[in-house]
Amino acid sequence: MNRAVRLVIALYPRHFRDRYGPEIADLLSHSRRPLRDLADVARCALAERVRALTYARLRPYVHATTGLIAAPVAFAGAFLVFYTLCAWLFAAGAAVAGASLTAGSARLVPALAALPVAAGAVWLAGHARLPFTSALAPAGLTLGALPVMLLVTDLGSWPVTAAVGAWGLTTCALSTVATAQTRRGHRRRAVLTMAFGGLLACELAVAAYSLTVSGSMGTAVAAYPVTSLGIDPSLMGDPTGRVADAMAILPALLTACTAYALGLATTTRPDTSTPAPTPQEAT
Amino acid sequence: MSGLTEFGRFSEPALLVLVSLAEGPKHGYAMQDDIAAITGDRPGPGTLYGAIRRLEDLALIEALPERERRKPYQLTAAGRAALQAELSRMRAVAGTGLRRLALS
């Protein structure tokens, strides 16, 4: 009986449960017709749930989800701005320094441009207030990153979907672990989990993608460090830079999204409670 | 009329809660007993607290400090006025209906 009482009371929205849960449990425990009363409470709890689904209540969730989906678009835009800026600076430096700035140095431009975007993503995440658990954030980021990547690559939708999907699944799992660690007060452990796990997620996604371009496992494994750090692509058996070119903004975008997910899972305190309704909303 | 007409299908339990509290402060269990005595049907805890929540949100009733681990509720001045207005309206409707029935 006690378990059944707890179960039906758990059906109520949290604000209602906190306010009236003990009183309803008291009435149920003294009920003369427990089955009828349990059914009544379950029906009314579901009615309260439906009533809670107003736009005013959903608004924070809609805004947060929209923000998560828009974040990769913003990161891509910021990356292109910094990339252009770095390229201009590089061109200006090359004009002054001449031959000492070679084409090899130009490979560093994407890596340099990705740094401020990733740093900005961590900063942004520290100021975000998600109404739901941060563990769900990578799902929204995946939804936002996928159309961006489909737009800027011409390899077909499946390799991009596989790569971004693999990143999303891995980062969701990592965020779940990191969020749980943060809640238990193990923030340093959460940062390490997200940092190393995030690199692994990016490596996995970029490897999956580059495998479709190069067909070589060795090249695929080396693709993320080579393209994201501006290392000579001939080291991974791609002297023409074909794989690096096909990557487009994928490494930078996934790095920024990982940094954002890392920031969300380790610097924000998820508030999963539903705000109590105002009297105006109640009518 | 303030409040009760906006309750829809919850208007009857809400009205019965107000009628029950018109006698004085009561906790949930006492309200159930009282409403059962008035109508012959004991409201379920979900129905009762759904009505209590709406009436509290509309400031027609208010919770008092807990007594013996139970929280009593009482009518507010607005609740008393709303109940008065609703019962007068019902009396007018009932009177009209009964008069017309007697004529037919």
Provide the descriptors you would attach to this structure in a database record.
heterodimer, A: 283 residues, mainly alpha, 13 helices, 0% strand, elongated, disordered C terminus, B: 104 residues, Arc Repressor Mutant, subunit A, two-stranded antiparallel sheet, 61% helix, WH_DNA-bd_sf (chain B), WH-like_DNA-bd_sf (chain B)
Question: What does this entry look like structurally?
Answer:
Chain B: Residues 17-84 form the Transcription regulator PadR N-terminal domain. Chain B: This is Helix-turn-helix transcriptional regulator. Chain B: Pfam families: PadR. Chain B: InterPro entries: Metal_resp_DNA-bind_regulator, Tscrpt_reg_PadR_N, WH-like_DNA-bd_sf, WH_DNA-bd_sf. The complex is a heterodimer of chains A (283) and B (104). Chain A has helices at residues 2-10, 14-29, 34-52, 55-97, 103-106, 108-127, 137-152, 157-183, 187-214, 217-229, 242-247, 250-267, 279-282. Chain A is mainly alpha-helical and 283 residues long. The two termini of chain A are 34 Å apart. Mean pLDDT of chain A is 83; it is low at 270-283. Helices cover 61% and strands 6% of the residues of chain B. Chain B has helices spanning 11-21, 28-39, 45-57, 77-103, and strands at 61-63, 73-75. A two-stranded antiparallel sheet of chain B has the order 1-2. Chain B has a single domain (5-103), classed as Orthogonal Bundle (Arc Repressor Mutant, subunit A), CATH 1.10.10.10. The chains are: A mainly alpha (283), B mainly alpha (104). The A-B interface holds A 16, 19-20, 23-24, 26-28, 30-33, 36-37, 39-45, 47-48, 277-279, 282-283 and B 6, 27-29, 32, 42, 44-50, 52-54, 57-59, 69-71.
Strand and helix map with partners:
The complex is a heterodimer of chains A (283) and B (104).
Chain A: H1 2-10, H2 14-29, H3 34-52, H4 55-97, H5 103-106, H6 108-127, H7 137-152, H8 157-183, H9 187-214, H10 217-229, H11 242-247, H12 250-267, H13 279-282
Helix pairs in contact in A: 1-2, 1-3, 2-3, 4-6, 4-7, 4-12, 6-12, 7-8, 7-12, 8-9, 8-12, 9-10, 9-12
Chain B: H1 11-21, H2 28-39, H3 45-57, E1 61-63, E2 73-75, H4 77-103
Antiparallel strand pairs in B: 1-2
Helix pairs in contact in B: 1-3
